[in-house]
Amino acid sequence: MLKKLLVANRGEIAVRIIRAAQDLGIATVAVYSAADAGSLHVQLADEAVNIGPPAAKKSYLNIEAILKAARDTGCDSVHPGYGFLAENAAFSDAVTGAGLVFVGPSGDAIRMMGDKVSARSAAAAAGVPVVPGSAGRVEGLEAGREVLTETGFPVMIKAAAGGGGRGIRIANSLTEFEQAFPQAEAEALAAFGDGGLYMEKVIGKARHIEVQVLADGSDAIHCYERECSLQRRRQKVWEEAPSRALSDGLREELCASAVALAKAVKYSGAGTVEYLYDDEADRFYFIEMNTRIQVEHPVTEAITGIDLVAEMLRIAGGEKLRFRQGDVSVKGHAIEVRLNAEDPAKEFAPFPGQVAELRIPGGPGVRFDSMLYQGYQVPPFYDSLLAKLIVHAETREAAIVRLVRALNELKIGGLKTTKPLFLALAADPAVRAGDVHTRWLEGWLIENAAALAG
């Protein structure tokens, strides 16, 4: 078992990891920028180290500073969380090269599956269906025009590296394509240091469905699927598990394909295999694998009872998988919504500031993952995620009712948040019926802008 863990992240995920480690008797070290000196993860960790100024590239993306903090505090392991360096193969290599344990997959596995192009190839080799598109990276506009003869329009241009919806454009005509391609290339280069792109056919009304896997390098299991179809600008805002769109037979096929892929690449740790599901054709297609813990992991924990972060730490500490596939079952339905410091009435403009009042919802089936406390100053330098509200109930219908109750209990004074968005969505007949797809929310936001003031 690991003895002392450095958490190379901030915000709610740093708090989540520190709590899981301490539950296992592992000492924890937080790292923080000057802007995060008063953060909850700094207060909760056993030790904390300032690694630089507010700019992420000088602190949370500074590999040397993080490794120095680990060495100076006697850590034997590093958990990257999500975002920042979580899917950086060079960071995984550097941690291992320093004689520490990286809580996640190897650098080679991240290179293979973190690069979306090589991941498509690995998926195809493992027999997993992929979205029709380019065979590899698209080297320039002329090569892109050739791919268009196969995909037609609309077509999606996507960054080969990274994730989180960045470096992605959809083109509906050749004119749009020729404008969007260099834009996506520049955004990908700025966000990930890699301007490589690939192309996929757009599946018109697809659902986003992803399978949680756990693996120890030789064996792998799935923890069933999540549906994340409600997205704004390709950013997930509402996630739930399980998906009500899948038949039992297709669910079994989908989850088995994710396990096959994890085994094929000798994956270790927690990972997520993401798919598009075409309702009309009743077919699914692989889109990418995320080689880290996901923001939305709590809904899987709610329906399976498995602490995914704790299992990551156990596996990194040398334990084999503690669960066989037959041990994992689904109980009830869970929903997570992401509460961001944004003003939904003003096109989701960022709203950093001080938390003047905080009332956290509770009761049966309610979980609130956050770094907030009364008086906390939300810095303007990072992602706007404040908290995740997760509810669990016997049925999806009961979970939505519980979500509304918990949202009404919640009070974050002094800040504009995305709470009005979720109250409005929970009341919408299409959401209640589960009749949504990945492009549904954009149109809904235009038609319901007035409902978001609050």
What does this structure look like?
With 454 residues, the chain is α+β, with helices and mostly antiparallel strands. It is 34% helix and 27% strand. The protein has an eight-stranded antiparallel beta sheet with strand order 13-12-9-10-11-14-21-19, sandwiched between helices. Strand 9 and strand 10 form a beta hairpin. The longest helix has 19 residues. The mean pLDDT is 95.
How is the topology of this model organized?
Elements: E1 4-7, H1 11-23, E2 27-33, H2 40-44, E3 47-52, H3 63-72, E4 77-79, H4 89-97, E5 101-102, H5 107-114, H6 116-125, H7 141-151, E6 155-159, E7 169-171, H8 174-192, E8 197-201, E9 206-216, E10 220-232, E11 235-241, H9 248-264, E12 268-278, E13 283-290, H10 297-304, H11 308-316, E14 333-340, E15 342-343, E16 349-350, E17 353-354, E18 357-359, E19 366-370, E20 377-378, E21 385-393, H12 396-409, E22 411-413, H13 419-427, H14 429-433, H15 440-447
Parallel strand pairs: 1-2, 1-4, 2-3, 4-5
Antiparallel strand pairs: 6-7, 6-8, 9-10, 9-12, 10-11, 11-14, 12-13, 14-21, 15-16, 17-20, 18-22, 19-21
